[in-house]
Amino acid sequence: MFEAxxxxxxxxxxxxPLYERLKADIKQRIDSGEWPADxxxxxxxxxxxxxxxxxxTANRALRELAMEGVIVRVQGxxxxxxxxxRSAPFMGVRNIADExxxxxxxxxxxVILAQMEICGHELAExxxxxxxxxxxxxxxxxxxxxxxIQLEDRFVNAAMAPWYLDQDFRVTTPNxxxxxxxxxxxxxxxxxxxxxxxxECRHLAIARTEPCLLIRRRTWSGEHIVTSVRLLYPGSRYRxxxxx
Length: 244
What we know:
Elements lengths: L3 H7 L7 H14 L8 E2 L2 H8 L3 H13 L3 E4 L3 E4 L14 H7 L4 E12 L2 H7 L6 E11 L2 E11 L16 H8 L4 E9 L3 H7 L7 E10 L2 E11 L10
Antiparallel strand pairs: 1-3, 2-3, 4-5, 5-6, 6-9, 7-8, 8-9
C-alpha cells in the first residue's frame, strides 16, 4: 500500500479535486508498470483508510477509472487493472438521422420512454447537478429502413433544455434539438464492446449473444453538462470509422 503524501505529491495536481489526484496516482502506477494488468487495486475502504480520504472520494475515483476502461470492477472481488485495448479514432457527435440520410436510407424512430426523473447520487454526479434536481430521461430506438440500428438511452439536464419532453422525437432527434438549444462545446466519450441486456435485445431484435458496440457520451455547453447518454449498436449492423 502507499502513503498519502507520496502519492498525492507525485501526481502534480495539488490544486485539483482530491478524486482527480487519486485517479492520477493510480494511473501513474499502472503506466509505470508497478501495477500490471490484472493487478488488484486497493478497495474503497483501503484507499480511505490509508490516504485519509472519504469513501465517497475513493468510490468516485474508482468508478471514473472503470468508465474510462483503466480498471475493471468485479462485484464481490474488487477492482483490477484492465488489460490494454487497441483503440481507433472515431467521429464526434453526429445526428444519426443525418448519417442514415447520407447513406440514401430512411430514418425512423420509436419513443420507448420519455419522462422526468429526480436525480439520485449517481445521476446527479453524471450531470454535475445537485441531488434532487430534475432531469429528463428518454429511450429511443432508431431504425434504418425499418431495421433497428441504435438504441439511445439519454439523460438530460433539465435546466439546460427545459422543453425537452415537449418535442416529438418521432419527427426530430434529441441530437438535433439539443444542439439548437444548448450548442455543444465539449464532449467526453468512450466506446467498448458489450453483450446486450434482455430488454435491449427485444428492441434491437437481436440475440443475447450478439456483440454490440456501446458508446458512453457526455456533452457540455459552456461549463454545464447537458446530457449523459448510452448509445448501443448491434455489432453486425454498425461499425465506427473515421477519416482525416
